[in-house]
Design brief:
The protein is mostly beta strands and about 190 residues long. About 0% of the residues lie in helices and about 60% in strands. It folds into two domains: about 100 residues, Coagulation Factor XIII, Chain A, domain 1 (Distorted Sandwich), CATH 2.70.50.50; about 80 residues, Immunoglobulin-like (Sandwich). Strands 4, 5, 7, 8 and 9 form a five-stranded antiparallel β-sheet that branches. The chain has a four-stranded antiparallel β-sheet with strand order 1-2-3-6, with no helix packed on it. Strands 13-12-15-16 form a four-stranded antiparallel β-sheet, with no helix packed on it. The chain is rod-shaped and about 70 Å long.
Length: about 190
C-alpha cells in the first residue's frame, strides 16, 4: 500500500516541495529546494499522533541554488506523519507541513506468532505490528463456524478468550494491510 502527499512552501524566499511514499517496506521521503543558500541542515521528524514529533534523521544542506534530497526511514509502524525542519546557519528554523505515509505490507506479519493454551482456553498473539488494525479469523475446518474480530491499533501482544474449543483442525488467519499470515492448530 502506498500513500503519497506533497507540500510546497517557502522560507526566506526559498521554495520547498516535500513528499513521501512507502517502497518495499521503507518510507522514502523526497524534497527539493530552490534556492538552498542559507540552509545549514534539515531535520526529518516523525509523529504517530500528529502532535509529538521526534527527529529520525538529519540531512545536511548542499548549499547549492537548487537541490533534490531523499531520506529513507524505518516505518516503525504502518502509518505516520513526517515533516521537515529546515535550520539556517543563524539558527532560525522553519517547520514545513507534514506528509502522511502509510506503509503496511506482507513483512508486517512475518514475526507474528499465535499460541493456544488449552488449559485456560485462550489465544496469545505475539510479535504483532504495533499501531495497526489486524483482522483475525479462526475457523474450525470441520464446523466452518468462524470466530472473526479485529485487533484495533494493536500492541505487540494480544490475548483472546473464546472459551473452550471443540477438537479438530483450526486455521488462524491474520490480515494487516496487504499482509496475510496463516497458522494451523490441531486440537484433540
Amino acid at each position: 500500500m502506498i500513500a503519497l502527499l506533497v507540500f510546497c512552501g517557502s522560507f526566506s524566499g526559498q521554495e520547498v516541495s516535500f513528499s513521501g511514499a512507502c517502497n518495499d517496506g521503507k518510507v522514502d521521503l523526497f524534497w527539493e529546494t530552490n534556492p538552498d543558500i542559507n540552509c545549514d541542515y534539515f531535520c526529518v521528524e516523525r509523529s504517530f499522533n500528529f502532535i509529538n514529533f521526534e527527529t529520525v534523521g538529519i540531512v545536511y544542506s548542499s548549499g547549492k541554488s537548487s537541490q533534490r534530497y531523499n531520506f529513507e526511514a524505518d516505518p516503525s509502524g504502518s502509518e505516520a506523519w513526517y515533516r521537515l525542519k529546515q535550520v539556517d546557519f543563524d539558527g532560525a528554523y522553519k517547520l514545513f507541513e507534514p506528509v502522511f505515509v502509510i506503509c503496511a505490507g506482507s513483512s508486517d506479519l512475518e514475526t507474528a506468532n499465535v499460541f493456544y493454551n488449552s488449559s485456560s482456553h485462550h489465544f496469545v498473539f505475539e510479535n504483532l505490528p504495533v499501531g495497526v488494525d489486524i483482522r483475525v479469523m479462526i475457523v474450525n475446518t470441520e464446523m466452518l463456524q468462524p470466530i472473526e474480530f479485529v485487533i484495533l491499533k494493536s500492541l505487540s501482544r494480544y490475548e483472546m478468550y473464546p472459551g473452550e474449543l471443540f477438537s479438530g483442525l483450526y486455521v488462524i488467519k491474520l490480515e494487516c494491510g496487504a499482509g496475510v499470515r496463516t497458522f494451523k492448530l490441531l486440537l484433540e
